Amino acid sequence: MSANVGRRMLRLEDDRLLRGNGMYLDDIHVSGSLHAYFVRSMHANARITGIDVEEARRAPGVRLVLTGHDLGDLNGPLPLLGPHPDLLAPRTQRPLAVDRVRYVGEAIVMIVANDRYIAEDVADLIQIDYEPLPEVVEFDDAGRDGRFVHDDIPGNVAAVVSQVKGDPEGVIRSAPHTLELTLDIERSCGSPLEGRGVLADWDPRRQKLTVFDSTQSPVAIRQGLSRILDVPLDQLEVSAPDVGGGFGTKIMLFYPEEVLVPYAALQLGRPVKWTEDRWEHFISANQERGQHHQAVVAFDDNGRILAVSTNFDHDTGAYIPYGIAVPAVTGTHLPGQYDIEHYRYSGRVLYTNKPPVSPYRGAGRPQGVFVMERLIVAVAKRLGVEPWRVRRANLIPSDAFPYDTGLDLHDGSRAIYDSGSYVEGFDRMLSHVDVEAFRERQRAARAEGRHLGLGMATYVEGTGVGPYEGCAATLNSSGRIVLEVSVPSQGQGHATTFAQIAADVLGCAVEQVQVVTAAGGPNAVGHGTFGSRAAVMSGNAVAVAAQALRTKILATASVLLECSPDDLETGNGNVFVRGDENSRVSLADIASGSNPIRYPGTERPVPWVSREPGSEAPVSLSATEYFRSGQWVFGSGAHGVMVEVDPGTGRVTIDQYVVVHDCGRVINPLVVDGQVIGGLIQGIGGALLERLTFSDNGQPTTTSFLNFHLPSVDDLPPLVLDHLETPSPWNPLGIKGTGEAGIIPVVAAIAEAIEDALSPFEVSVTSMPLFPAEILAAIDKD
């Protein structure tokens, strides 16, 4: 085993962050900055019949007031991510609404003033006249006469996503048993600790536009802004500083603010800054989850699942900026770890008068797992057996990998599970849960009037989305290794895990490696962090670049040590002759020996290597390499949860949670644990605490943390966390992503546990999240 990869070590970046030395968007202050504020629609669906901004323009301290009419061609539809043949009627938002608003929170006017207080006060001087229109809020509204989010789209259908594997309809007709369930998951959102924000500064002397953006993909922002604003790439730099959480919310490309703040900076020749407050986040940041499923399962007397079919509606909000990604991922991930020969899904993607949808941590997978696991439990109830027995009987066997699901992913690649040991992972979870002992405790508790319940769920997570990432690795004159990557961090521990990979290749201490993000400048070598891809794509790029740098280091050291590179080895920050560690040279001395300029204070008695050995090229102790992949890799896991439900109050208490998780080869178990636990607690929020609600006319009724309750550390239950490693054969490091794994099965597992606890009341859980009042209503109803 390597010295560093696989080692449980503290994160290098935490000392700085825990001491309050992080640099987040709102910590960046540029002298002379102006501040932006956006006037947003108070109607969910309305025509704009007039906008009067003249009084606002004359107000003291106001520098710029923009409407959509002022933007000209710039106010065209924002980019569509992932065009796809299944998109029947794609529509994306304009930077500023002109004639029509389609959700509460849509931006209409931008105000730039000397400070944010002035800008917000001046917003009251702007007069906007509306003609309200009938709203499309719930799925049933989409097909009603006279209700249109976009007037030219019948039925408000943006897309239909569907695939068929085998002959599910024929098997369902002839199967010994069938069941049908109606299932719902409500809307939620990412709620990162740090809201969105943009700061832009145009320097006329350097002819350079510098943009700081709290984003997950500064590379894509830079590329897109160059085209949208007609600013040459060499005059544009986009940086993501420390980002206080993303969870998919900050991968949207583009939010209107990301275009308009840089545009205002160009127009005014002054720095312009906008930071999102929490109210703005609730009404204008993208959301996710909302789906309604009609699902059918066919099975035999032994609990073998013969076929699954689901028709579902997916709420995409007022626009569809991220294409079909979320509903398509639901469809392709729904079968999960189960070997289902016949399968069909068909999803209608519907426009509604709500904020647009883009991926939120899990990105369609929690919905699919909820449906599949609810079907599993229904099958078990019909047959009178424990649900775990049905699950285990249908798991894909370990000798079936790579396993072709027969389904195509939305990016055109095939969903092929690269590796796994689903039976072993499930059995590990069962051993931690100990079903028989739990049933004994459950029976004893019921005799006391207490209601305990057990739930489980399995899942797969497609990760490592391509097509490529790169890394520039350099040995500098101080003997430090600098890795430049293009994936910013929102807490994933990149500065530690990438350093561990490089340190093993180069034979140095982890602390000797510095990881920097060069995502927004001319040295950008990749895309961004989303879809649990950073470790797979950038991690392997780091390994390849470090290996290329090692080759150069050994070649240079061979001249200094007067031997063949093949006779050299690395370790402890030195290069030494194999078998003779006294014949060695440090990385710092190698860097010095490759530099003909001896800067003051850096002279060392080291010979100068004037050129690459065997070449006329000058010595370069730097290497840029790429890792490319067109094939996803699939992590997996099994969760078990034990709860107690109070039938008098509806309160759910989680007594213990078990996670068995497989992300291939683990780089740093501590970092992986953090990612899984973070996802788990978000999943608990999604199961028991969080739901975005809207009134009948589309007004959001959850616009603060007073009525949208986030989980806290007190909600984290006693936890058993176990790692299973089945290395992926499809990348050199054998790793799989893990950023979204923890959240995916939580809602499904808790739903089963609640239903199991309330089985004496014959409660059926068909909708999540569940709040105490709804549990009480279900008990009373049944």
UniProtKB/TrEMBL annotation:
Matches recorded under InterPro entries: Ald_Oxase/Xan_DH_a/b (IPR000674), Ald_Oxase/Xan_DH_a/b_sf (IPR036856), Ald_Oxase/xanthine_DH-like (IPR016208), AldOxase/xan_DH_MoCoBD1 (IPR008274), AldOxase/xan_DH_MoCoBD2 (IPR046867), AldOxase/xan_DH_Mopterin-bd_sf (IPR037165)
Record flagged with keyword Protein biosynthesis: no
Keyword Transport: no
Keywords: Molybdenum, Oxidoreductase
The Aldehyde oxidase/xanthine dehydrogenase a/b hammerhead domain, residue ranges: 19-134
Gene3D superfamilies, per database record: Aldehyde oxidase/xanthine dehydrogenase, a/b hammerhead (3.90.1170.50), Aldehyde oxidase/xanthine dehydrogenase, molybdopterin binding domain (3.30.365.10)
Protein name stated in the entry: Xanthine dehydrogenase family protein molybdopterin-binding subunit
Originating organism: Sphaerisporangium flaviroseum
